[in-house]
């Protein structure tokens, strides 16, 4: 019934940037298939005439005035950095093309 | 990297119809970022303008900058767009180290402005109208610096460093519909379109609009359609073409490159391409693929934006005169030829000339100073002319010439002083002692000496050949170190010669 | 005099105010209790080493005659989902192990401003994903009533801390029941406020449109006192409401007089009351008895229907993973947290991120991230996330109709009493169904409360009564909740927690 395949889960894991092991892929595929089967029923009642609710309490036009608030200090900003060089965060080489 | 084969441009246009599309990102000049109260400022130390929100720390939440909404609406209106009655932010999700949350808060199917148009005037006088599909709000990413490797580019770098000061800076992305019918003008249309956007955002005051600082960034989409076909060709998207001249060159290059491929029976790959300013070429980037799945969904941490019609109309009333209408008006008012006016426009000196005229200079004088001496100095220094002096200073200088207090030559020296920060033109004249010598006594002494040294010239003048006075004027001016009014010198020579 | 740890927050606050007890004494008593029992309970992930200093400073200010707030000097435990400047904030995840935020969550800042004394950070299911606290990367918490059982989740640590007298008050967060269900199975009180009533700024987001921070305590009044401290508009949270909230503590005091029940229209939600099975017999029995007692006390009990609730769990398990997959994308090893290099191959930033997220996230988190990624991916959005948002509308409509007929709705807060550690951890679907009673309130944004409803006869473990009120009507919950609390404790002749076996020796 479900279309959840290992390949799909592998693709999803790469979108989600999680390096799943083969074992994890296998078990997740089964679990996900089962879960998806049980939650797919939402579409039964989601007819076109029903509006979607994204926020439980509807609000609109919540804005902030364009006024500067104190930022973190550089030391605070970098305090959790796994690696830094000077005042910047350091990451390994980037393979992908820029977006 | 193999060099691309290019087809001759005219040949390419003969065989294919170019179809264009542009995505222009405009960085707004709000005081604070799009979703947090950190300063929207440049040139400060790395990571000085960050907070839990723009740094994507766990628990950080966005708050929409009202001024950014206002600027976006004004920009939308200036582009002739409808303003949405209700729109939302959405998350565009992809992992990248400069994107703090690993999603960009943007707008997806509900942009704040849509369905606009912009009419461009080309140098030939041809007008072409570009349809605007949408203008939406989003945030900028942080800044990466690639370290190691030979080029400083991302390829071959050993590691990269991230500064999030720019992360979260408000952007408006303006997307055109496809532009057909540009034909051989396609490269110029690209340039004119981006130039028009720049003029509009500058006139609105919503952006600093300095392309060289990345305030305006253009992605150019180009495809070719064989003559007689109705099917659109495969397009490429050349990213980050960040000067007007580059837009023109990049469009031209892609037309020639794609035409060469098609002409040889090849196919165009749908991909992003990188623009290389130094070589004037593009190179292949990331292929577009089904894997581009941004998993957009409405940003649950923000609520809808529903600008009231009253607000929209209030903002519409604040719009300045459209740049194209303004240009027409000024050209007529100043009485410039098309070529003279184009000089001013191309030099991005319209504001400067207008302000100089407003400060009292004649249009011709204002134009002469800005497109002449000031542009020359600015080019030599690699800066913009309007950063050198103020229009008021130019008008003052121009006034000193008109009143005979300065000669053109002296005025250039005064200008040097003004640029060097020695003060106003009048102050520089005073400090450097550059005033025209109008003391007839000193002039007469110099004239008599010169006439005595050149008795043959004196004889000619006395014979009625008054143009011979020129030789004496030169000698007198030299003796006076240029600080004399040539017209007065001439009068006195004729007087002394008994004419 | 009973030990300090057995006082309610309100009682303790009174003794602090009168000078009978100092905050240092109260704080020390709770630190001692933590030292004595937390090895067994494991409610805390971190115990503050500055709590006594904080308490001493408050005592000094009180001694100097300064006017202090109603809960000044009272210790409080903080769920680890909340950012605290002076204590690691991990949300129960290895990927944030040791992370010291450079800022305080708004609710934490408000605790400090009101001079409460943060005792430490409480255990939770990793990123609040779970109903048992077994998904904590730092080991499960244990139910003080029976150490072989879970204290519920995700806020099992806060509920366990309060019910084990390690803290009189705690903060929790409730996305689908994470305050109410643990309260139910530990015999404590827990409140999920109206969505937007309490700031989420600094709460490590699970599902942005569902999350709400709220109080955990041993009495309704105590919850109200804490609610008053943390609630109110916060410009840093764009979904924060601008309501002028009445005092919840005042509402609880009003309710405590018992008059609130007369003429009160109480709706029993058929779909949440175990009519269709799936509820433990003892839970159902205590619920039926409570309904009868309410009728006897003069309330008008009506049955209401909510047909769309059948789809609530499914909608919830689409919305939550979708939003969570996005919210957790920031855990990428760049700016904070764990960084793991891949075992082999080039350590590009992409591979470092993937390796970090593989090593740093537990199985349940990965499961939900993958599920959420699927639900949002191209081509599935309308069928899944979009449909779930529509179900949300239907559930709101059901609630609106129910509240036409009733002032408050009631149901069991959880279908069962505390389950055995390990019994559901490998069966995600069964675990998900445990939240069937609490999820609708989150989807609709309405406030909900769980209060002790007696012990299930078959296992002697606590059961919880859930009360629901319309959005913005949180005060009604406190008034009615306090009234029912009074009615039940009067009937029992004691409060429920004095029955807890583990705690008996300390309670005497
Ligand atoms: Mg964009
Ligand atoms: Zn910021």
Structural key phrases:
heterotrimer, A: 99 residues, mainly alpha, Histone, subunit A, two-stranded antiparallel sheet, 3 strands, B: 499 residues, alpha+beta, Arc Repressor Mutant, subunit A, 3 domains, nine-stranded mixed sheet, three-stranded antiparallel sheet, 16 helices, 38% helix, elongated, binds magnesium ion, binds zinc ion
Describe the overall structure.
The complex is a heterotrimer of chains A (99), B (499) and C (508). Chain A is 37% helix and 9% strand. Chain A has 99 residues and is mainly α. Chain A has a domain at 6-45: Histone, subunit A, CATH 1.10.20. A two-stranded antiparallel ribbon of chain A has the order 2-3. In chain A, helix 1 crosses helix 2 (22-39). Chain B folds into three domains: 9-316, no CATH class; 323-432, no CATH class; 440-496, Arc Repressor Mutant, subunit A (Orthogonal Bundle). In chain B, strand 12 (236-241), helix 4 and strand 13 (271-276) form a beta-alpha-beta unit. In chain B, helix 1 crosses helix 4 and helix 11 (408-419) packs across helix 12. Chain C is α/β, with parallel strands linked by helices. At the A-C interface, helix 1, helix 2, helix 3 and strand 3 of A face helix 10, helix 11, helix 12, helix 13 and helix 14 of C.
Query: In whole angstroms, how far apart are the ends of chain B?
Result: 77 Å
Number of H- or I-type helical stretches of chain B: 16
Chain pair forming the biggest interface: A-C, 56 and 75 residues
Calculate the mean pLDDT score of chain B and round it: 91
Q: Can you give the helix content of chain A as a percent range?
A: 25-40%
Shape of chain B: elongated
The quaternary state of the protein chains shown equals heterotrimer
């Amino acid at each position: 019934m479900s279309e959840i395949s290992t390949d799909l889960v592998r693709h999803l894991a790469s979108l989600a940037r999680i390096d799943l092991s083969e074992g994890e892929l296998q078990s997740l595929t089964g679990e996900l298939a089962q879960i998806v089967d049980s939650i797919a029923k939402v579409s039964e009642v989601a007819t076109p005439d029903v509006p979607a609710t994204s926020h439980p309490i509807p609000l609109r036009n919540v804005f902030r005035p364009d006024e500067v608030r104190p930022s973190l200090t550089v030391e605070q900003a970098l305090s959790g950095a796994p690696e830094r060089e000077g005042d910047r965060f350091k990451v390994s080489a980037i393979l992908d093309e820029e977006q | 990297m193999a060099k691309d084969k290019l087809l001759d441009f005219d040949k390419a246009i003969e065989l294919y119809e170019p179809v264009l599309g542009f995505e222009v990102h405009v960085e707004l000049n709000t005081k604070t970022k799009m979703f947090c109260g950190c300063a929207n400022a440049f040139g400060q130390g790395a990571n000085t303008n960050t907070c839990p929100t723009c740094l994507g720390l766990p628990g950080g939440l966005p708050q929409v900058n009202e001024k950014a909404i206002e600027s976006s609406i004004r920009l939308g209106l200036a582009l002739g767009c409808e303003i949405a009655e209700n729109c939302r932010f959405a998350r565009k999700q992809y992992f990248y180290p400069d994107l703090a949350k690993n999603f960009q808060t943007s707008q997806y199917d509900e942009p704040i402005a849509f369905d606009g148009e912009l009419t461009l005037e080309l140098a030939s006088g041809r007008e072409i109208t570009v349809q605007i599909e949408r203008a939406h709000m989003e945030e900028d990413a942080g800044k990466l610096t690639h370290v190691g490797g030979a080029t400083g580019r991302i390829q071959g770098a050993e590691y990269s460093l991230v500064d999030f000061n720019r992360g979260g800076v408000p952007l408006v992305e303006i997307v055109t519909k496809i532009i057909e019918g540009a034909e051989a003008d396609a490269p110029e249309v690209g340039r004119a379109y981006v130039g028009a956007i720049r003029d509009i955002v500058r006139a609105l005051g919503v952006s600093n609009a300095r392309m060289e600082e990345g305030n305006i960034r253009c992605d150019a989409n180009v495809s070719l359609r064989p003559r007689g076909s109705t099917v659109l060709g495969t397009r490429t998207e050349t990213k980050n073409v960040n000067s007007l001249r580059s837009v023109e060159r990049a469009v031209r290059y892609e037309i020639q490159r794609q035409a060469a491929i098609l002409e040889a029976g090849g196919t165009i790959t749908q991909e992003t391409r990188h623009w290389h300013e130094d070589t004037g070429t593009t190179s292949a980037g990331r292929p577009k693929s089904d894997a581009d799945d941004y998993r957009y969904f409405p940003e649950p941490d923000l609520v809808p934006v529903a600008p009231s019609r009253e607000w929209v109309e209030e903002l519409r009333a604040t719009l300045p005169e459209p740049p194209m209408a303004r240009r027409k008006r000024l050209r007529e008012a100043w009485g410039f030829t098309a070529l003279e006016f184009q000089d001013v426009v191309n030099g991005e000196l319209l504001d400067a000339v207008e302000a100089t005229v407003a400060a009292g200079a004649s249009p011709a004088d204002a134009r002469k100073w800005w497109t002449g001496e000031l542009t020359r100095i600015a080019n030599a220094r690699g800066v913009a002319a309007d950063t050198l002096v103020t229009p008021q200073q130019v008008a003052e200088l121009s006034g000193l010439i008109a009143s005979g207090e300065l000669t053109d030559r002296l005025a250039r020296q005064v200008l040097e002083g003004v640029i060097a920060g020695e003060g106003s033109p009048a102050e520089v004249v005073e400090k450097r002692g550059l005033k025209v010598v109008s003391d007839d006594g000193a002039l007469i002494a110099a004239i008599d000496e010169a006439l005595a040294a050149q008795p043959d010239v004196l004889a000619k003048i006395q014979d009625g050949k008054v143009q011979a006075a020129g030789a004496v004027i030169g000698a007198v001016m030299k003796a006076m170190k240029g600080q004399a009014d040539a017209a007065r010198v001439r009068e006195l020579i004729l007087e002394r010669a008994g004419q | 005099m009973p030990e300090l740890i057995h006082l309610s927050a309100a009682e303790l606050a009174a003794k602090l105010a009168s000078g009978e007890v100092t905050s240092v004494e109260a704080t020390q008593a709770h630190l001692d209790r933590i030292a004595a029992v937390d090895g067994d309970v494991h409610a805390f992930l971190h115990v503050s080493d500055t709590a006594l200093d904080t308490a001493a400073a408050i005592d000094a200010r009180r001694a100097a005659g300064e006017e202090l707030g109603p809960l000044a000097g009272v210790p409080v435990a903080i769920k680890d989902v909340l950012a605290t400047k002076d204590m690691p904030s991990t949300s129960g995840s290895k990927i944030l192990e040791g992370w010291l935020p450079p800022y305080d969550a708004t609710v934490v800042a408000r605790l400090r401003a009101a001079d409460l004394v943060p005792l430490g950070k409480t255990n939770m299911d990793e990123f609040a994903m779970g109903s048992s606290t077994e998904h904590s990367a730092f080991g499960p918490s244990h139910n003080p009533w029976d150490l072989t059982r879970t204290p519920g989740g995700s806020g099992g640590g806060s509920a366990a801390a309060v019910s084990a007298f390690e803290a009189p008050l705690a903060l929790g967060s409730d996305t689908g029941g994470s305050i109410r269900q643990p309260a139910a199975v530990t015999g404590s009180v827990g409140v999920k406020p109206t969505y937007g009533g309490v700031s989420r700024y600094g709460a490590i987001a699970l599902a942005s449109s569902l999350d709400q921070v709220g109080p955990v305590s041993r009495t309704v009044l105590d919850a109200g006192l804490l609610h008053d401290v943390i609630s109110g508009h916060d410009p840093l949270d764009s979904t924060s409401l601008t309501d002028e909230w009445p005092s919840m503590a005042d509402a609880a005091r009003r309710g405590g007089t018992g008059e609130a029940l007369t003429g009160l229209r109480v709706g029993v939600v058929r779909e949440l009351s175990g009519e269709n099975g799936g509820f433990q017999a003892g839970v159902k029995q205590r619920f039926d008895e409570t309904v009868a007692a309410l009728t006897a006390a003069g309330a008008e009990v009506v049955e209401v229907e909510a047909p769309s609730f059948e789809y609530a769990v499914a909608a919830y398990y689409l919305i939550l993973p979708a939003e969570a997959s996005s919210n957790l994308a920031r855990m990428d090893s760049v700016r904070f947290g764990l960084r793991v290099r891949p075992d082999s191959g080039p350590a590009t930033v992409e591979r470092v991120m993937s390796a970090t997220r593989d090593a740093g996230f537990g199985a349940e988190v990965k499961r939900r991230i993958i599920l959420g990624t699927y639900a949002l991916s191209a081509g599935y959005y309308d069928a899944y996330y979009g449909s779930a948002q529509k179900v949300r509308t239907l559930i709101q409509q059901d609630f609106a109709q129910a509240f036409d007929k009733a002032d408050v709705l009631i149901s069991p807060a959880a279908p069962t009493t505390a389950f055995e550690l390990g019994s559901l951890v490998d069966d995600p679907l069964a675990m998900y169904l445990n939240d069937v009673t609490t999820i609708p309130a989150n989807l609709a944004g309405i406030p909900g409360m769980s209060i002790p409803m007696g012990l299930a006869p078959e296992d002697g473990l606590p059961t919880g009564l859930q009360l629901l009120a319309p959005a913005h009507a949180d005060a009604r919950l406190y008034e009615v909740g306090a009234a029912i609390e009074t009615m039940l404790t009067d009937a029992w002749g004691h409060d429920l927690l004095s029955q807890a076996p583990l705690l008996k020796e300390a309670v005497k």
